[in-house]
Write a structure and sequence with these properties.
With 383 residues, the protein is mainly beta. The chain is built from 3 helices and 31 strands.
Length: 383
């Protein structure tokens, strides 16, 4: 492996860059003994050198090697490097004189896995191309591309006006600061993160292989692990402050009390994977499945029973969103978006949406929705 040299000695010499040829047989270590490798003459963490994230050691959690106590990179130099790298992007502000128009956004090289609304004029999208893109909908342009994940990014939620959260096949949950696009990592998952739901502004739940984890964001600690599913969990929905529901490959919906970490009900009825769920009102939620159906569930008095099955789609129903008190929207692998009346449970409009499967929907405002899917495009619709 060659000689092993502590970075402390390099900092005594004020070295940040090294000649690759003269050091090619040497290995460097951050203070926590993680191997660092060269990238274009700069020492970077071996865990992220392919993404060219200089000065970062992800094994120590995001930036923990860059604290004042660490001589891998002094805090002053770190701030200078990151300000140069990240300060040229900012979110757009709502403009009373300009309105968001119908548009098609292109930029991802993979399928669109998730979209979240940041504001009335900006969204974030996640893709199988391993990136998250922040979009300005007034200008129809990209604000920033986030490349910290090293595998498919499956889910994305808004946590607060200042933060979004992403989950990936790289087994990491990342919490992003929207002011400077910095991020922290929640570490402890052993499988792909397929879904995340916000519990409150400091807590989230994530779904993976057979388990749901409850996370405290400020401390980065997993508070509880809920076990009961027999396969992958694809979707989560918050039903109340203490109750969430989960669904996935095992075709079952499980209802959980997150305070006691117990499953209080198991709902059966779908005959294939469950892709999405939404809370329609305090007494009703809906679920969408690969079995081409949408099921309506009554949760009043904790009875948890199916009251209707909607069968308008001709292929897998992939996503659901609320539109108003009287309407919700579904997207399907049949390439169509359907708008439903909540009272009559009838489809009142069908939109020929994408060239391929519609995998994600987001409400932008009372008159506009955003959709994404396997054709790698994001579309903004007036409805």
């Amino acid at each position: 492996m060659g000689n092993c040299i502590s970075l402390d000695s390099c900092f005594q010499k004020n070295e940040l860059k090294f000649d690759i040829e003269s050091h090619k047989n040497e290995s460097y270590f951050c203070p926590k003994k993680h191997v660092l490798v060269f990238n274009q003459g700069i020492v970077v963490c071996s865990e992220c050198h392919k993404r060219k994230r200089c000065f970062i050691c992800q094994k120590c959690s995001y930036y923990s090697c860059l604290s004042e106590s660490c001589r891998f990179l002094t805090l002053e130099r770190f701030k200078t490097a990151m300000n140069t790298k990240r300060s040229n992007a900012s979110l757009p502000m709502p403009d009373s004189d300009r309105k968001v128009k119908d548009q098609t956004l292109t930029g991802h090289k993979g399928i669109i896995r998730s979209i979240t609304k940041i504001s009335d004029v900006s969204i974030a999208s996640a893709s199988s191309d391993k990136t998250i893109i922040i979009w300005d909908l007034l200008k129809s342009t990209q604000i920033k591309t986030l490349t910290d994940h090293n595998d498919w990014v499956h889910c994305l939620i808004k946590l607060s006006d200042k933060q979004i959260v992403s989950g990936s096949a790289d087994k990491l949950i990342k919490v992003w600061n929207l002011n400077n696009f910095d991020c922290d990592s929640l570490i402890g998952n052993t499988h792909t993160i397929f879904c995340i739901v916000k519990i409150n502004e400091t807590k989230i739940a994530s779904g993976s292989f057979k388990v749901i984890k409850i996370w405290d964001i400020p401390s980065h600690i997993c508070l509880k692990t809920l076990e009961g599913h027999s396969d992958w969990i694809y979707c989560l929905v918050k039903l109340s402050n203490s109750i969430i529901a989960s669904g996935g490959v095992d075709k079952e919906i499980k209802v959980w009390n997150i305070l006691s970490a117990t499953c209080v009900a198991t709902l059966k009825g779908h005959t294939n994977y469950i892709n999405s769920m939404i809370l329609i009102n305090e007494n009703t939620f809906a679920s969408a499945s690969v079995d081409k159906t949408i099921k309506i569930w009554d949760i009043a008095k904790n009875e948890y029973r199916c009251t209707a099955t909607l069968v308008e789609h001709t292929r897998s129903v992939n996503c659901l969103i609320n539109l108003s008190q009287n309407q919700f929207v579904s997207g399907s692998a049949d390439t169509k978006i359907k708008i439903w009346d909540i009272i009559s449970l009838k489809c009142i409009r069908t939109i020929e949406a994408h060239n391929y499967s519609v995998d994600i929907l987001v409400k932008l405002n009372d008159n506009m929705i955003v959709s994404g899917g396997k054709d790698k495009t994001i579309k903004v619709w007036t409805i």
